[in-house]
Amino acid sequence: MWYQIPRDEMPELNILFGADNAFGRLLVIPGVLSALDLHEMLPRRIFVNQMLTLDGNKFSTSRNHAIWVNDITAKETGEPLRFYLCRRRPEGSVEDFSLSSYESWKRNFWDGRLLRSTGKANQVIGRIATDELPCPGQWSATDIAFLAECRRFNAEVRARSEADYPDVRQLTRAIEAFVDAIERYSCSVLHVPAGAKENEALDRTAARAVTFALVGLCVATYPVAPDFAVGIAGSLGLGVPKLSWLDRDWMAEPVRLPESIGARGGE
């Protein structure tokens, strides 16, 4: 059958296997295919999956681990679990997964810092007096530094999102650090009382800056937490996040907010 497929129509093969199958998949099978002149069947990309251990044990269906994982995901959305598994992806050494560590991380980051950070960012946007995001006004040194941090984050998202081999471990860790940066900046903005005429120009800039940050955040999280990412994008009147959004200047891009300012400001 393989000989009947024209070379230019051969499907691109990618193969994923466990580390214990490396000898056969990397040496024996390619050698046999080459000897039989079946070069088209050789995979273009090879991914060796070095699995996490579970509470110090090798993941195994004989230990009912598959049932155990199914019970976890049945109790809650799978997004925080997927995010955590990505950030713990093994790189050169075995990583161990424990339920207690996961639950501690979830309380601290997913249910804590992440929600707090996005909530504060929405409060910053809620300070503006229109449903259409205005252009930036006056800039402070804090605004300039934060925007530079946003651009560095976007560059890292691009680098970690290579199609051939996305680095989800470093991507998720970069997301965590950026979430903390958004909260720090938002708190610094909210520390100054709103409503004063002299602060209106600064508020416009801050609203644009956190929008810039939230766009980058939803693009970065979409591959591992799509529901969360779509929710953030929707709060900005946007659709499904795309990597190409990182190429747009969100300090000037037209943005119409779907929610009332009062509702936003109360978050």
Largest sheet: 3 strands, mixed
Rg calc:
23 Å
Tell me the fraction of residues in β-strands, as a range. 5-15%
Broad CATH class of the largest domain: Mainly Alpha
| Elements, N to C (H/E) | EHEEEHHEHHHHHH
User: By helix and strand content, what is the structural category?
Assistant: mainly alpha
**Strands, count:** 5
State mean pLDDT (0 to 100 scale).
84
In which order are the strands of the major sheet placed? 4-3-5
Name the CATH homologous superfamily of the largest domain.
Answer: Isoleucyl-tRNA Synthetase, Domain 1
- Spatial shape: elongated
Please bin the fraction of helical residues.
40-55%
CATH-defined topology of the largest domain: Isoleucyl-tRNA Synthetase, Domain 1
Query: Stretches where pLDDT falls below 50 for ≥5 residues?
Result: 260-267
Question: How many distinct domains?
Answer: 2
CATH architectural grouping of the largest domain: Orthogonal Bundle
Distance between the termini: 61 Å
Supply the number of helical segments: 9
Summarize the structure.
With 267 residues, the protein is mainly alpha-helical.
Written description of the protein model:
The model is unreliable at 260-267 (pLDDT under 50). This protein has helices spanning 22-35, 65-75, 79-87, 99-125, 141-160, 168-190, 197-221, 226-235, 261-265; strands at residues 14-18, 45-49, 53-54, 57-58, 96-97. The protein is built from 9 helices and 5 strands; from the N terminus they run E-H-E-E-E-H-H-E-H-H-H-H-H-H. The radius of gyration is 23 Å and the shape is elongated. The chain folds into 2 domains: 1-49, no CATH class; 110-265, Orthogonal Bundle (Isoleucyl-tRNA Synthetase, Domain 1), CATH 1.10.730.10.
